[in-house]
Amino acid sequence: MRYEAPDTIDAAIAILAAEDGIARVLAGGTDLLVQIRSDMIEPDLVVDIKNINSMRSITPENGGYRIGGAVSCAEMGEHADLCAQWPGVVEAAELIGSTQVQGRATMTGNLCNCGPAADSVPAMVAAEAIATIVGPNGRRDIPVEDMPVAPGKSSLTKGEIVESVFLPARPERSGDAYLRFIPRTEMDIAVVGVGISLTLDGHGTCTHARVGLGAVAATVLLVDDAAKALIGTRVDDAALDKLAAATSAACKPINDKRGTIEFRTKVAGVLAQRVAKIALDRAGK
Amino acid sequence: MTHSSDFNAEKASNLKVIGTRPARPDGVDKVTGRARFGADMNLPGQLVGRILRSPHPHAIIKSIDTSAAEALDGVKAVVTRDDFAENPDNHAVLCNVMAREKALYEGHTVAAVAASTATIARKALKLINVDYEPLPHVTDVDAAMQPDAPVLHDTIFTSGVDPVPTIPSNIVARCEFGHGDVEAGFAKADIIVERELKTAATHQGYIEPHACVASVSTDGMSELWCCTQGHFDDRKICAALLGIDVSRLRVTASEIGGGFGGKTTVFIEPVALALSRKAGRPVKIVMSREEVFKASGPTASTSMRVKIGVTNDGRMTACDGEFRLQGGAFEGSPFDSAAMTAFACYDLENVKSVAFDVVVNRPKGAAYRAPGAPMSVYGVESVVDEVALKIGMDPIEFRLKNAVRDGSQSSYGPKFGPNGLVETLEAAKAHPQYKTPLGPNQGRGIASGFWFNYGGETCSNLNINADGTVTLAVGTPDIGGSRASMCMMAAEELGIPYDSVRATVVDTGALGFNEGSYGSRVTYASGLAIINAAQQAITEMCKRASMMWDIPADAVTWEDGYAKPSGANAGEFEPMSLAEIAAIAANTGGPIAGHREHNADSAGISFGTHIVDTEVDPETGRVDVLRYTVIQDAGKAIHPDYVEGQFQGGAVQGIGWALNEEYIYGDDGKLQNAGFLDYRVPVASDLPMIDTVIVEVPNPGHPYGVRGVGETGIVPPLAAVANSVSAAAGVRLSELPMSPPRVLKAMDDAKQAAE
Lengths: 285, 755
Description:
A: four-stranded antiparallel beta sheet, 34% helix, B: 755 residues, Aldehyde Oxidoreductase, domain 4, 22 helices
């Protein structure tokens, strides 16, 4: 296995594009190294992107924030303005692994790993986050929900790297939140994960909402019907009941060691209601 | 000299060191990383050992071709079943450490390589060609007992049944304990409750994976370093499996990162020795976590039926239980102790307890803290809770009414002596937690539990150093603070400060045979040996003083660290301290030491009672443990911090077992959660501070009254948590773990049934 740690993204892309064997990008390594150590993969090339300065910063842009692909989840949690604007995204990123893992793990890595239960992804989906991808054929932007195509499989093509994730500006009276269900209190993987972002008008009516749903299908889902259950309402009990029903209806889970179809479907609705209440509360402040 | 182990009330009420809480001697090394655990040992020229494991849960191994692996550059040895001779006395262990005719579970060792690097070793494993013929498999205990189940061994004909079956099955043995007439007892009952219950297999979950380094010299002299609970046991079994003299194998126990019973046997150690013998170089093997889950020794899963009859005023008239335990692919599940401990808390006229030992296609089980008892007691204490509720009696009052006392006939045979069950129940009743009001969706559970405790073969040395300090050589690995407690007991007897005594767990070359650190035996049995060794050294020191004073040896007494003339008639001499006697030992006969070898047979039984409050999320079935108190009879707590630590650890492991830990098998017979992500032990933030109450009812078989404390703590929690969760959820749960999907389904089903 060859290890490279270039200091420009162009160099990284060139190295990746030239590799004929199995190539992997190393950011925090909290997924990659585990996979290597457990013999799940044997890469021929590992390209460490942590020496690329442009990928290690959180930058304000058009009222939103651009988060470099090598920024750790802990660094996001230490960024007061980002936390104030997108608390749901940050709280999701700060649920990944343990405190120690969060010091290494990146939100971009969580996205690129394409696990259906990735914590930060439903929150990013709800936030309408955009992934900026750089590759041999230049730069392109995609909505984060278009990144995973199957468990463990992304839509990236050979030589491409996610340079950054962009969280857009948001109107007044907006709030977002993320909750996951785990049997324990931490150090666990989501059995269901729900991210919701919503915006209220001056009268407290929801004008915009997005619902991201994790761990209940092969990829993280953007659930339009769940968002519609909230838009035009004051997010009252009736709307929350519709939200729960729409969220549960969107679930396409499997029975596995982490939960049954029945359990995941029901708890997705329960969580959606709880998340919506937190987002509502944040939007009203 | 004669050694007394009788309780000495006068001594026990005048202890100076015992019962204090000095700093642990291993603390600094452990927090700084200086302590050497199993994987920290390295030898010059050592090779990397790796193991090839069966991908099939059950398969005939038709052939193994290692030629391509052996030809790979850097591979120094490959071993298979052909490198281990048949060993009828240790057949099951032999077959478990290296599969013979069949692979009996996914992860079963089939071959091993020693290579110069890990990469080469990994490559070599892929070059070993094993021709398997897969067979039907069974992993569930009830399924394995069915007549049409795939049979693992055609040599198993159920023992303990009359007549002995003529066809082989997976049921190794049946055992039965009890007395009286249960049918007559049930006829006298006003209320009878009978339930079927289940528990999942769990793993001890020690943080340190198994690790060892083996080095076999060309002349056959062999050394083994490993993390173990019993290095003398390891020596015995490894020597037997490799066909070497016990005297030619020296085993050294490393610091141990948890064992809980799971490190009382061998897995990789004989394989490393065989590789080293073949390669002529030291070989190190370290298991991965996946290997630990798949191929070390988890505990049994169980299925059981419990039936209890009571009168309306709360007297148990009959208890009947059947306990079915699978112990993995070989005989030896803790079925007998499950049957014996099940009803041990109760003074019963009519009791019958039957158990079955069953084999399935899972890794061979090993001991796990009070083997068998947590499961059977879960069944019994769940039903006890239910009957108490039915007759409207407080669960502690119910237990007090039926509890065993001094002189009670035990459910499994012997008469109990003095014991602390009633005292733990009284302490529970008086505990503030028991009086705290509960909120919505909250419940409180009570359960009691019993463990025998063990003594066994033990051998310890005590050496008086020339500077007045003392070193102890102990043969039982320190898995729960025994070095501290040994030093305290020596200091107590000798009348010197704790800091003047140091204990070392020595290798197998330095002492006679010691059974391992299991059975809650170390503080009792090794401790008693140290006490006796100190007494022997004291006798010798008195003799040395008598020589100096030129008076008879029996005219000298030992008091608070000094030899003194026993009275005015003995003469007027200035008392001599231990240090003074030690300093001139060379002139009075040479080094002063004490030693003691015994088979300790007066271990004290132990009971505990636990109180737990939980809250259940009615929408998700998730359980929060709000408050937990362990009350247990320690006889006499030598170092209370460690005793409390044992109580807390037992409760925490029991909470994990009750709520989320389980071996999950797919239809393919493969373990689906061989890692700490999906095998869910509780993390620190899942738990409240576990409160403890140490009850001290002296063991009549120990001078200070010591009882073992390591195991009883894991006996009540499964039931206590289940009773608490059942109360909080409003529905009786009868299967562990009570994971959120299971709790939510039970609540939803109960709701639907009510509608």
